Amino acid sequence: MATSASTTSNLSEEELMLIVKWSGKEYTVRVCGDDSVGELKRQICEVTAVLPKR
C-alpha cells in the first residue's frame, strides 16, 4: 500500500489529504495533523474495505 501527501488551498494547515493506492485503485483519505495512526487505519479501512490488520 503506497501513500502520498498533497496540499491544496481548500485544506486547513492541520488537515492532510492522502492518496492511498490499493489493488490498482486510488482512494482519497483526509486526516487531521493530530489524528492517531489508528484513526488513519480506520479511515483507510472505510474506503478500501481492507482490514487494518492486513
| Structural shape | flat
Count helical runs. 1
Strand order of the largest sheet: 1-2-3
Instruction: Tell me the β content.
Output: 35-45%
| Helix content class | 10-25%
The radius of gyration computed from the alpha-carbon positions, rounded to a whole number of angstroms, is 11 Å
Order of helices and strands: EEEH
Largest sheet: 3 strands, antiparallel
Organism: Carpinus fangiana
GO biological process, one term: regulation of proteasome assembly
InterPro entries: Ubiquitin-like_domsf, UBLCP1
Protein name: Ubiquitin-like domain-containing protein
Give descriptors for this structure.
54 residues; alpha+beta; 3 strands; 22% helix
What's the layout of helices and strands?
Blueprint: E1 2-6, E2 15-22, E3 25-32, H1 37-48
Antiparallel strand pairs: 1-2, 2-3
Concise summary:
It comes from Carpinus fangiana. This protein is of the alpha+beta class.
